[in-house]
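Can't attach files on this board, so I'm pasting raw text. These are the components:
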Amino acid sequence: MLKEERHQIILNEVRVHNRVLLTDLGEMLNVSLDTVRRDIKKLDEEKKLKKVHGGAISLGFDSYSFKGSQIYSREEKTQIAKKAIALLKEGQVIILSGGTTNLELARLIPEKMKLTCFTPSLPVAIELLSKPNIEVIFIGGKLSHQAQITIGAAAIRYLTQIKFDIGFIGTGYLDSVNGLTEFDWDVVQIKKAIIKASRKTVVLSISEKLNSSQRYKTCDLSDIDTLITELEPNDVSLVPFEKQEIALL
Amino acid sequence: MLKEERHQIILNEVRVHNRVLLTDLGEMLNVSLDTVRRDIKKLDEEKKLKKVHGGAISLGFDSYSFKGSQIYSREEKTQIAKKAIALLKEGQVIILSGGTTNLELARLIPEKMKLTCFTPSLPVAIELLSKPNIEVIFIGGKLSHQAQITIGAAAIRYLTQIKFDIGFIGTGYLDSVNGLTEFDWDVVQIKKAIIKASRKTVVLSISEKLNSSQRYKTCDLSDIDTLITELEPNDVSLVPFEKQEIALL
DNA sequence: TCCTTTAATGCAATATTTTGCAATTTATCT
DNA sequence: AGATAAATTGCAAAATATTGCATTAAAGGA
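---
Top answer:
Structure tokens for the assembled complex are below.
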């Protein structure tokens, strides 16, 4: 393979994907990492891409900005996501709903972990695509402008055909009287379908959302298996919350 | 064998395959590598191809990347996208494939225009979601890490159930010998399905991608209805391109 | 036709480029 | 700080280029 060919392929990769890892290129081009490095160095000198540690990125790359991704305190969500990741096992088939907490979860999945991830969330899907070892399956259909996730009957029907190892439900509102609630009816329908399709349902919620509720109900507390917050389990106050059917993490 | 004959063969080889190895030419032409070298050197001096270490590549092979990622060619893509938007009519149901040109198209759709847009492209979908009047339907399925679009059998099957008013095929490679070609086999399959599902197929291509080809074929030129480039129609050079079955814009 | 001139080709010796490996240093993450 | 991944450097082997030269082929002139 000619050097120029490799260069072309690398540039194409960067153009389409905005970023590329050295290791991926090595496999793709069947050359050593040294060669890829030299190629990238050359292309960088020619100002055709930007060389970075571990790979290269497109020149105009300023990372994706998602609607309202970073409004809330990132730190809490990071804590929640880490706890969630501890539940994952190699080779599992999981589904992530939308929301910034799930986005953080997607971001923190270890590079090396092999998973099959379904999601109806656009931002989550993009985040997952940056991990080569994860097979990403997007649940298609009509998209909600607000939530940036797929809604509607087709998606719900689709979900009835699958059984997931774990379903991660992103931030909603939660109290022990009303259960899980949302303010978007369409989103509720999708979440219901996810819960139904999952062997185990894990809810990720920052503590602020506890003990508050919205108009539309997704499910009862008893329908979920695990609740993860940024707090220590003992500090979680769910009033009244006598029945400890739910694992707190 | 005459020198001129060899030159023609070499040029043709480069034109069709975008590149050629010295050693291959040696075998093909039954002459020493020295002769091939001298031929290629001559053709290089005549600006008919570009001599590189180990062979030769087509001129303009990497001219796109020369302009380096989105930044430089953004303007050209904007021009293309504007022409494409002129084809749209209120209330139509269209489909956009992936690629930066389609992304630009999505970006430039007027706020007020009501449309139903299908797409298998993650970035295009996100862009479309910023327009409240557009109903966005994402074609779900397994996502390509590379191209950030849905690929695979399920998506292709899904596409057989719909008939779109217009299908916009993003930048690929195009010449009149090989037709539309691509880098990525899976992407080719999706584009084929899009073309089949569309009443009218519009190809968006910056002129640099003209007269060059890649490994995998999407369709013949005769399968598309309109070709849009950033150039004036008269300036578009597709050689040989006698049959004007295609509208140039 | 024969000779001369010029261009084209192949060969061989020598340079240059490219590539992969290994050892070391540097950067990154926890 | 320690562990891990990545970058750098020097080096050697392989592939490719270059150069000079000899041979052959073609072209033109007397």
